Each structure stands twice: as structure tokens, then as C-alpha cells.
Amino acid sequence: MSFFFVETKSLPQQKLYDEGRIVFPAVLLSSPSSNNITVNPSDLIEAIKDQKPWIDSILHQSGAIMFRGFNLTTASHFNDVVEAFGFHDLPYVGGISPRTNVVGRVFTANESPPDKKIPFHHEMAHVNEFPSKLFFFCEVEPSSGGETPIVLSHIVYQKMKDRYPDFVKELEEKGLIYTRVLGEDDDPSSPIGLGWKSTFLTQDKTVADQRAAKLGMKLEWQEDGTVKSIMGPIPAIKVDKNRKIWFNSMAAAYTGWKDDRNDPVKAVTFGDGTPLPADTIHDCLRILEEESVAIPWKNGDVLLLDNLAVLHARSSFQPPRRVLASLCK
Predict the structure, then answer these.
(1) Which of 63, 96, 146, 64 lies closest to 313 in space, CA to CA?
(2) Global pTM?
(3) In what order do the strands lie in the sheet with 310-314?
(4) With 90 as the cut, is the pLDDT of residue 260 above it?
(5) Any long-range contacts for 160-168 (C-beta under 8 Å, 24+ apart)?
(6) DSSP code of 88?
């Protein structure tokens, strides 16, 4: 069945920017003419292929698109949707969070415990090879909580620059250094519990060193079997669509990179190694929360993010919840 998408401002959580010209996130439903017809996953895939230039323009403008009401029920359906866009796959090398491959290009999202909130971040902003696009899919909606809050990065940059111009200037000049201690194997109790074997997709330390170096990362092997990864100095501010963006994982690392091996306050510093000001980081967290949008998941939802334009987080939740993800170059 052929149909056209319709963009809607139908959810109370959506925000308006640029004098109402930008809706964040964009929400795409099937056209009204197909309301009385069941839209199957295969119809959605056909529509994506047929209307991809228009969808790309919406993503460019809004930074995020939610597809709702298309009767997607399985990881395989989601994989087919990802494939329909034609983006190249990005292997999860250099990431920090435990994930499990489900099918094809589909992985579980961060598997950290449900009572732990995952702070705002750009995916893999702590390395120099990161995805340009992210897909999320709700296979099982949470009984409560569990949203994936999102926020526009250029808005965060402007708010921080207005409030802390000296700090932002120093950040632009020095960049950031991210430091993390990795165990040999995965630690599912930790939100940053990916072991070095899974991080670099190898059991060979030499290969791990090589893959780390490709990402701009240095590894220091410890006598207890752990390894310290050091990334940076790396820019904390980038330019996207001719505007500066808050492209970093500073707040996430400073407040969330915590487990038996890691002290979050030491996880991220200015690029010269000097500490970050705690009060400024915590106020940044408040700005992120104030500007964010958190739409409750419904079964079958797909959320597409421009990883340069949008930071995302994860709210704590009451199980069950199963949200899957796919990373694209």
C-alpha cells in the first residue's frame, strides 16, 4: 500500500523553535487518507524509500524524527527500517556501554540498570569516530519512566555561552580529556561497564592498542588486568549547519561515569588536565533538563536522531522496557 507521511504537532511534549518554524522533534504519522487502513511494516519501508529526500529535509531542520503508528513489532522490522534509509553501518568500537547484538544492525540500547539515569550526551562524542545518525526502537514500552529525553545541541551551547562566557571560551580553547578505566570483561552493573575486549572487539591487547589509536585514544595497561583509556584533548564544541553545537559528553562523564573502577569527577577534565568547575557542570545539567523533550515510548515507535544536532539521555524506569538501537555513519 502506498501512502504519504504527515508531519504533526500533536504531542504536548514537542517544542517550537525559530518563531514556530521548527517543531522538535518532528513526528511523522501516516496520511489521513490511510487512517482506516492497516499500515504494515513493509508499507513503511516502501514509503521511506519513496520519500527519503523529504524525510532528510525534515531531519535536517528538526534534528529528530519520531515515526509512530506503523505497527512495527519485532527487531527484524526495525532492522528493515534502518536498512531502508541506506545509511552505512557504524561498528560500536570505542563505546562505553554494554550492548547485545539482536539481529543485523540492531543492538540493545544501553543495558545499565533500570534505576540508573543515563545523563545527556552525544553518542560517542568522547572519540573522534562517532555516528552521524542514531535510531531507537521501542519493542516493549516501559510500565513507567524510561523515556529517551532529547535536546538541541545548539540551544545548549547558546545558553551556556550566555551564562558562562569565560568557561565556554576556555572549553573552546582547551577541549576536553576523557579518562576511563576498563575491566577485561563486561560489567552489567555499571552504566559504563563495557570491558576492553568488547570495547575494541578483540581479545588481543595489540589489536586493542591499534584500534584505540585509530580513534585517537591511548591505552595504559595496568597490572591488575584493567586498562586506562585516555582520549584527548578533543574538541568539546563543533560547528554544524553553520552554528556552534555542544558536542561533548562532559556532563554525562562528570556525573555518570561512576563504578568500582571510575571516579566521575576525574573522568573528564579540560584539555590541559585542569579540573572542571563543579557548579558550572551541574548548572549545565539543569539547562539540559530545562530544554529537553521527553516523549513517553509507545510500542512500535522509531526515533531517528541527527547525532550532531541532538543530545540524548535515558530516564530511569520500571521494567519491563526494551528499546533497541542502531548506529550509522
Answers:
(1) 146
(2) 0.95
(3) 118-121, 310-314, 150-152
(4) yes
(5) 160/246, 160/284, 160/287, 161/244, 163/283, 163/287, 164/280, 164/283, 167/277, 167/280, 168/237
(6) P
- 265, amino acid identity: V
Q: What distance lies between CA 156 and its chain's CA centroid?
A: 16
Q: How far apart are CA 164 and CA 155, in angstroms?
A: 14
Half-sphere exposure of 13 (CA within 13 A, CB side): 17
- What residues pair up with 150 in beta bridges, in sequence order? 293, 312
DSSP state letters, 7-30 = EE---TT-EEETTTTEEESEEEEE
Residue-by-residue DSSP string for 269-316: EETTSPPPPHHHHHHHHHHHHHH-B-PPP-TT-EEEEETTTEEEEE--
In the structure grid, which three cell numbers stand for residue 192, read together?
559504563
For 275-320, how does the pLDDT look when each residue is reduced to its tens digit (9 = 90+)? 999 999 999 999 999 999 999 999 999 999 999 999 999 999 999 9
d(CA 8, CA 23): 9
- Residue whose entry in the numeric block shows the C-alpha cell 508531519: 7
The DSSP 8-state label assigned to residue 259 in this structure reads S
> Among 52, 233, 251, 82, which residue's Cα sits nearest to residue 151?
251
Q: Which three cell numbers stand for residue 177?
A: 580529556
Q: For residue 259, which of 168, 193, 329 has the smallest C-alpha distance?
A: 193
